[in-house]
Structures are given as structure tokens and as C-alpha cells.
Design a protein that fits this description.
The structure is a single chain. By secondary structure, this protein is mainly α. It has one domain (about 10-185). It is built from 10 helices and 2 strands, in the order H-H-H-H-H-H-E-H-H-H-E-H. Strands 1-2 form a two-stranded antiparallel sheet. Helix 4 packs across helix 5.
Length: about 190
Amino acid sequence: MHSEFSAFRSAEFYNKFSDDQISSLIENTRRRRFFALIIDLAIFALGVFVLSFLGTDIHNIAYQNYELHTVIYLITSNPLNLLFFLLPFIYYGYTLGSKEQATPGMQAVGLKAFRNDGKPINFSYAISFMVFSASIFSIGTIFFPLLLCPLISNYKRTLHDVILGTAVVNSSAYGDFEEDKLGKQNA
């Protein structure tokens, strides 16, 4: 029996789902992922604004030393400046690597991320997810076809999902299937 989702089932995570269940798991994920990204970028922009507001006084003092005005000096003159570089790692590491397996934007639109091997996403895997997604998005601005991967993929997976072996699914559909599975085990 050759299924439409046979390639998708190569990961053990999806072996427990039927074709209909997989279909509902990935329904509307492209649109939801886009809105989740917008929400996450808004949260990230708010964090950058707060950090820049907190660091304004020390940053102005650093501008008075024109001969030492370099990127390295600005980073070392104010520890908050270092947080600008660490903020994306902290944000993705602690949100996507949490027990919810989703960033706040993904939670708001009802998405959840999973590894194909069935293991939970941990802090370092979440950082890898962020680095690959940012890299592919940056390269995709030059090589636009890289950004079209979710449009041509039958499984609505982005290129960084394919590279890292992750899938983003509807959390409500996944929760329903897990409840059904638990109910059958208890019966």
C-alpha cells in the first residue's frame, strides 16, 4: 500500500498516525507559521526596545570617547549591549526548548514543534533551529527559491525543518490524538 504520506512517515514520530490524522496535523500550518513569526518578531522587537532604552545612558557615555568608538568597545562598555546578540538565542532556547515545544507566537496560533525521532526539543536543538531558520531566511533573500520550500512540500515543512528533522503541527489536533491514544490504553 503506497500512501501519499509514505515519505513523511519515515520518522518514527509519524508512524503512530493515519493519513487522515497527518492531514489534520499539518492543516493550515503555513499560514499559522507566518503569523507566529510576526508575533515572535514583535515580541523580539519589544525586547530590543527595552534593552536599548535601558542601555541609553551608558551608550551615550560611550559616544563621548570618539577615539575608542568601535563595535568591540560598545559591546564591552555596556553589558546590556551583549544581550542584543544573545537575545535570539535566549528567546528560542527557552521557549522552543520548553515543555510546550513552541515559541509564544506558535502557542498563540496553535502550533507545536517536534523532532522526527520523537524526542523533545531541548535548549541546544532550539538554538540550532533558530540559527538554521535565520540563515536560510537570510540566504533566501538572495536565493528566493529557498523560501518556497513550504509551498512545494506536501508536508508543509520549511527547509530548516527538513535539515534538522523537525515538524511543526497543529497542537490542538495533536492533543486530540494523544487523548484518544491515552483513552484506548486506559480502556
